[in-house]
Amino acid sequence: MPNILDEAEAATVLRCDEDDQNMLDLLPLVDAYLKQATGREWNEDEPVHDEAKSAARMLLTMWHENPAMIGSGLTGLSFGLHATLMQLKMLGAELVETEGSS
Predict the structure, then answer these.
(1) H or E stretch including 98?
(2) What pTM was computed for the model?
(3) Do 74 and 82 contact (CB within 8 A), yes or no?
(4) Helix-helix angle 50-65:79-100, to 10 degrees
(5) Contact in structure between 89 and 38 (CB atoms under 8 Å)
(6) Residue 74 half-sphere exposure, CB side, CA atoms within 13 Å?
């Protein structure tokens, strides 16, 4: 299953090579975190919502620059990332309602 961000998108954000092992290791962790935080598998949407990509970019950058934050939960998140996660959670709830009424 593809990640929310593909290798090219992630490498552009981090300004690294597409085969950077640290980046590649972080991509599934970012997806798992966003699923746990919002209750939705964002990488299964086609296309992946821009809001999910934005949150993934922010989280990827934060964890790449400070690996000690991996697994720290919501503590230590920047206000911007925290706000983005709340918006993403609301979007996920709206999508569930829309998908359920189809």
Answers:
(1) helix 79-100
(2) 0.88
(3) yes
(4) 150
(5) yes
(6) 10
Confirm whether 65 is domain-assigned: yes
2 inside domain:
no
Q: Is 1 contained in some domain?
A: no
Dist. CA 48–CA 71, nearest whole Å: 24
> Residue 76 is part of which domain span?
7-100
Instruction: Specify the 3-state DSSP secondary structure of 24.
Output: helix
CA neighbor of 51 nearest in space, from 81, 73, 10, 79: 81
Please count the structural domains in the chain.
1
Phi, then psi, of 39 in degrees rounded to 5:
80, 15
Q: Considering the domain boundaries, does residue 57 fall inside one? A: yes
Q: How far apart are alpha carbons 69 and 2 in whole angstroms?
A: 24
User: Tens digits of per-residue pLDDT, 3-45?
Assistant: 999 999 999 999 999 999 999 999 999 999 999 999 999 999 9
